[in-house]
UniProtKB/TrEMBL annotation:
SMART domains: AAA. Keywords: ATP-binding, Nucleotide-binding, Transport. The keyword Transport applies. Its main location: membrane. It is found in: Cell inner membrane. The keyword ATP-binding applies. It is a peripheral membrane protein. InterPro entries: AAA+_ATPase, ABC_SmlMolc_Importer, ABC_transporter-like_ATP-bd, ABC_transporter-like_CS, Mo/tungstate-bd_C_term_dom, P-loop_NTPase, Transp-assoc_OB_typ2. Belongs to the ABC transporter superfamily. This is ABC transporter ATP-binding protein. One of its GO terms (cellular component) is ATP-binding cassette (ABC) transporter complex. Signal peptide: none annotated.
Length: 363
């Protein structure tokens, strides 16, 4: 990234008894949509709160638009934030909630009202200005919170799991809305979520954190197809992870010895014989056949179906190999209909060696 609008350098936050953010470096371009993901407690919200000025870093720096943010209080920053719990004022009308940040900026009542109506209109809430917050649905409240955050025309919007309190249907609608807003406004969005589907649908780049550190930054297709380490590979959930030792090198392939067998893996990085190695095969890259139909060509593993899980039209099949390794295989419903997969059925799993991804890092 050549021009960075937001620059985090060695950003660090220690609470008494907990080191929440551990030296984060991250550059975000102007207008980018960045999603921060990671398990609960990994430091996502803390990072966002540091950006918003709601917490003081214990180390490192934050620059926005080239300006060091150290010492600038939250209310003087250009970094409004939207939460899951919205934090709307129940005793103010919808319009007064939206206009609230302008009151802090000492704008006149008429101008505040005019701008609030304009933003309510933009967010599909025309005609609701004088209602009580309590009279709104969850989705409408979410829009009020967005209008309130955007009314000061910030250059960056921070969102902390803003959709997680909504039901599935509404979440998808708000996702579309956020995407539209981001395109229309052209401002930078930093979006914390634990929902992979949201991050993948919305973000230009995804940041994956674990225990206060960034483990990978990349476009959605990169973290999905080319995870940097076992943590990211397993966090993405649809990968089968193998750990082992490199036993041979020929041309661009390496042979990796694992407890489940020896496998050929494209060696896209330097890897010496005897070195520990880890690779993944994505669940949707694995083919599956019934054992009685004979082993398929290419590397194959014999196993037993443990169970099946439906997600819409795709199905995840869990298979345990004879060596005790658990595999996930992801297929479209129609691809496996004829196989009559039930728990206990013996199957062969296979994949093309070129679909194995050697992880750049082994830890
Ligand atoms: P996430 O949003 O990724 O779930 P947080 O950034 O909220 O995680 O928290 C990261 C870690 O820091 C957690 O273990 C949390 O308990 C701890 N933490 C957060 N805020 C405080 C605080 N004010 N005092 C002490 N520990 C905190
Ligand atoms: Mg959080």
């Amino acid at each position: 990234m050549t021009s960075s609008f937001v620059a985090l350098k060695g950003l660090d936050k220690r609470y008494p008894g907990h080191h929440a953010v551990r030296g984060i470096d991250l550059d975000i371009a102007a207008g980018e949509f960045v999603a921060i993901m990671g398990p609960s407690g990994c430091g996502k919200s803390t990072t966002l709160r540091l950006l918003a000025g709601l917490e003081e870093p214990t180390g490192g720096s934050i620059a926005i638009g080239g300006r060091d943010q150290a010492g600038i209080p939250a209310h003087l920053r250009d970094t409004p934030m939207v939460w899951q719990s919205l934090a709307l004022f129940p005793f103010l009308s919808v319009a007064d909630n939206v206009a609230f940040p302008l009151r802090m900026k000492r704008l006149g009542a008429k101008e505040r009202r005019r701008r609030a109506l304009e933003w309510l209109d933009r967010l599909g809430l025309a005609g609701m200005a004088d209602r009580d917050i309590a009279q709104l649905s969850g989705g409408q409240r979410q829009r009020v919170a967005l209008a309130r955050a955007l009314i000061t025309q910030p250059s960056i919007l921070l969102l902390d799991e803003p959709l997680s309190a909504l039901d599935a249907h509404l979440r998808v609608r708000m996702q579309t809305e956020l995407s539209r807003l981001h395109r229309q406004l052209g401002i930078t969005f930093v979006y914390v979520t634990h929902a992979q589907s949201e991050a993948f649908a919305l973000a230009d780049r995804i940041v994956i954190m674990s225990e206060g550190r960034i483990r990978q930054v990349g476009r959605p297709q990169d973290v999905y197809r080319a995870p940097a380490n076992p943590f990211v590979a397993e966090f993405m959930g649809m990968n089968n992870l193998f750990r082992g030792v490199c036993r041979g090198r020929a041309d661009d392939m390496a042979t990796i010895e694992t407890p489940a067998g020896h496998y050929a893996v494209p060696a896209r990085r330097p890897l010496a014989v005897g070195e520990p190695a880890a690779f993944v095969v994505a669940a949707d890259r694995i083919t599956l056949a019934r054992a009685e139909d004979g082993p398929p060509s290419g590397p194959a593993v014999r196993g037993t179906v443990l169970g099946l899980e439906f997600v819409g039209s795709t199905q995840t099949i869990f298979v345990e190999t004879e060596g005790g390794q658990e595999f996930r295989v992801q297929k479209q419903q129609h691809e496996i209909e004829a196989l009559d997969l039930v728990p206990g059925r013996a199957v062969h799993l296979a994949w093309e060696p070129r679909h194995a991804w050697l992880l750049p890092e082994t830890e």
